[in-house]
Amino acid sequence: MRWSKALIPTHKEDPSHAETTSHKLMLRAGLIRKLTSGVYSYLPLGWRVLKRIENIVREELDAVGCQEILMPVISPAELWEETGRWGVYGKELWRVKDRNGREFALGPTHEEVVTDIARNEINSYKQLPFTVYQIQTKFRDEIRPRFGVVRAREFTMKDAYSFHRDEESLDETYRAIYDVYSRIFDRCDLVYRPVEAATGAIGGSSSHEFMVLSDTGESEVIVCECGYAATSEQAEGVIADVMPVEEPGAMEEVATPGMKTIEEVAGFLKIDPWRLVKTIVYVADEEPVLAVIRGDREVNEEKLAGVLGADIIEAAPPAVIEKVSGAPVGFAGPVGLANVRQVIDRSVEPLRNIVVGGNKADTHIRNVNHGRDFTVASFEDIAQIGKGDACANCGKAMDSFRGIEVSQVFKLGTKYSDSMNATFLDENGKAKPFVMGCYGLGVSRTVAAVIEQHSDDDGIAWPMSVAPFEALIVALNNLKSDAVREAAEKLYEELKGLGVDTLLDDRPDSAGVKFKDADLIGIPVRVTIGDRGLDKGIMEVRLRKSGEKSEVPKENAGAEVLAIVNGLRG
Ligand code: ATP
Ligand code: MG
Fold first, then answer.
1. For residues 156 and 55, what is the distance between their CA atoms, to the nearest angstrom?
2. Is 80 exceeded by the pLDDT of residue 205?
3. Which of 106, 162, 163, 116 is nearest to 136 (CA)?
4. In this predicted structure, which of 31-40, 257-266, 421-430 has the lowest mean pLDDT?
5. Ligand 2 center to residue 538 CA distance, Å?
6. Deepest of 23, 78, 257, 374, by most Cβ within 10 A of its Cβ?
7. Which of 94, 408, 444 has most ligand 1 atoms within 8 Å of CB, for mutation?
8. pLDDT for 200 beyond 70
9. Parallel, antiparallel, or unpaired for β 525-529 and 471-475?
């Protein structure tokens, strides 16, 4: 491709609204342009990278016998009603109506559609197991689209689905796809880590996420030296006990005028925040619930939903809090509210003489003791676990890092086949539900993840495997110098002939502009052709990543550049 004719609109300055490196560089290097919130066009460079990642994904999945298909973006509401997800998915599900008022979803994921195919087309255990996948545009009306293509409302996903006669067969495929994902991310030259994950709206029994290490990542991962690694949504751990042994004191009300936060009340009563036990009112599947936890810890809503067996869980609006506690927001507590379901975190168990909200305006109660002053059926694990908490396996203090979730794999079991009545006949002619797995990979998010790990102050430094071009020829002063223009054209044709994907910078711009742009768009191998070099019989080759320079004889430039590109192809 000739740069003079290409749509590669580069910018010198960082766009003001972009927060992360990848978002800034994708805009500055002319990879993408925003149409509206969370919706982007891919310009030639961005599209080429996306395609290269798609091809890596395709090659690796095809290699283990997965079959590529393409399902529709649009699916009818009735299908989603069969699994209950028309309701459960909430506002993230992008809903549209046809001219007759019939409702449809723009696919955020395709479990329902693929299960419908399986129940219609697969009858016998002899046809199992099988895995299909597609690479397709997905729609999710994210509450907070941000970081460019990392959290978009329209994005490219590879989603794969596997169907099995039993759990054993699912385990095998799950493991195989897990390994395929490792190969895909290795080929993209990413530093990543697979971790245990929560199953969220997709559901199922077991799940892993592949996290690309990055300080700009939205996910927090908790890790232990012993090898344990889980997302903070999922992480299990032991919260250190901080309570000295104490005899229960007499319960008493204290006035805490206008004090609604833990910090305010702890400061006012001159106590440690852990002695205050906070009560948070949630609405779980339309029922109010109290979550009770030590004052210095936070509730993990995924865990709470798990304990309650709830599909939708939300912080209660003020009107509900006031109705449930009989007090303004900030004064709810477990004492005297036995008629509301209470979930008490394990961190409360060792505590004595705690301070809780008094369910009365401007009032807290001190010297509260569980068992005596409020009943606890069982202590549950609903706490957010973080850095410094003890590992549940080995007891050591755990660490944390931030990551970008580039993919997630789930063992679904029979969640979808049961609700959609999708069955096959086993050896005895008995109908059994398919055991299923599903495997998502964010192709467009991976583009951004690669940039987060492969960039520097000057711009992007693509790994060869996903670069939009393999080589860039920078022709200096090409409009005035016939020798440069001819040498550049010759090398360009030669490299194309040798199968090297090459961009020729034949623009009439200064060397400074061309070098800056070259560093910004980050093509791995740059060949500079100028009069001075040609006089000496050489061209200069520079590697974008290391900055390493070398000279190649001009007569033999094509073969030499091919050798360098080959060295980086891996
Ligand atoms: P997240 O927790 O980041 O919202 P998710 O758990 O909802 O992700 P999945 O449903 O597992 O994601 O989707 C599979 C993959 O699709 C994710 O691992 C991610 O790489 C990608 N993905 C999900 N949501 C988006 C989005 N809004 N924009 C871009 N990629 C996305
Ligand atoms: Mg999501």
1. 13
2. no
3. 106
4. 257-266
5. 53
6. 23
7. 408
8. no
9. parallel
**Which residues are registered as beta bridge partners of 502?**
471
- Residue 233 counted as domain residue: no
pLDDT (tens digit per residue) in 47-71: 999 999 999 999 999 999 999 999 9
Q: Whose CA is nearest to atom 11 of ligand 1?
A: 408
The answer to whether residues 432 and 372 belong to one domain is: no
Q: Mutate which of 112, 233, 410, 445 to test ligand 1's pocket (most atoms within 8 Å of Cβ)?
A: 445
CATH of the domain at 466: 3.40.50.800
What token pair was written down for 474? Answer: 């920078």
Alpha-carbon Rg for the chain in angstroms: 29
Quote the percentage of the chain above a pLDDT of 90.
92
Separation CA 342–CA 344 (nearest Å):
6
DSSP 306-348: HHHT-S-EEEPPHHHHHHHHSS-TT---STT-TTSEEEEEGGG
Is the distance from CB of 518 to CB of 526 less than 8 angstroms? yes
pLDDT range class, residue 488, cuts 50, 70, 90: very high
Q: Is the Cβ atom of 110 under 6 angstroms away from ligand 1?
A: no
User: In this structure, are 292 and 372 located in the same domain?
Assistant: yes
* More confident call, 451 vs 244: 451
Q: Quick one: 104 and 188 in the same domain?
A: yes
DSSP 449-492: HHHHHSEETTEE---GGG-S-SEEEEETTTTT-HHHHHHHHHHH
C-alpha 152 – ligand 1 centre gap (Å): 9
| Whether residue 200 has its Cβ less than 6 Å from ligand 1 | yes
Answer with the one of 393, 426, 452 that is the final residue of a domain: 452
Residue 500: which pLDDT band, with cuts at 50, 70 and 90? very high
**By C-alpha distance, which of 407, 409, 408, 413 is closest to 204?**
413
pLDDT band at 570 (very low <50, low <70, confident <90, very high): confident
Crossing angle of helices 443-453 and 21-28, rounded to 10°: 100
The pLDDT of residue 300 is above 70: yes
The CA distance from 148 to 444, in Å, is: 10
Render pLDDT for 234-290 as a digit per residue (tens, 0 to 9): 889 999 888 888 899 999 999 999 998 999 999 999 999 999 999 999 999 999 999
Overall domain count for the chain: 3
Q: What is the mean pLDDT of residues 464-479?
A: 96
- Confirm or reject: Cβ of 220 under 6 Å from ligand 1: no
Give the up-direction half-sphere exposure of residue 486: CA atoms within 13 A in the CB hemisphere. Answer: 6
Ligand 1 atom nearest 410 alpha carbon: 11
CA distances for 221 relative to 144, 410, 422, 454, angstroms: 21, 18, 36, 21
Structural domain that includes position 352? 252-380
* pLDDT computed for residue 278 by the predictor: 95
Nearest-ligand number for the alpha carbon of 204: 1
185 Cα to the center of ligand 1, angstroms: 16
